[in-house]
Description:
There is one protein chain. It is built from 6 helices and 5 strands, in the order H-H-H-H-E-E-E-E-H-E-H. The chain is α+β, with helices and mostly antiparallel strands.
Amino acid sequence: xxxxxxxxxxxxxxxxxxxxxxxxxxxxxxxxxxxxxxxxxxxxxxxxxxxxxxxxxxxxxxxxxxxxxxxxxxxxxxxxxxxxxxxxxxxxxxxxxxxxxxxxxxxxxxxxxxxxxxxxxxxxxxxxxxxxxxxxxxxxxxxxxxxxxxx
Length: 151
């Protein structure tokens, strides 16, 4: 079984186990996210629905995304000056998000990267950090190299 097929089946099985409805729109959206390594915007997803045909209404995509986020099947990350990006929730692929300010690439980072910071904030400030829905911004390796060679 391919990794993509396994991710689709796992997501659909989770919906069933939670008593959620399995609709054509939900399955199509899960298939799109499972088949992409990118973090997709709602517009990207809508463009890929029905193979690019515009028969799926944008409102359906937004409602379906919202319901899958609420069900814990899909997660989103907010980007500065841009729309939210979506990906399947997959414990084997859990990650934080790094956003390059120069090229706009979203890079996945290990989920435990900020564990020490989380603990320190909890101890010193009584604050519980939840970085799952935001991207840490900076510069990717490629753009840092470009900047260094331009000097």
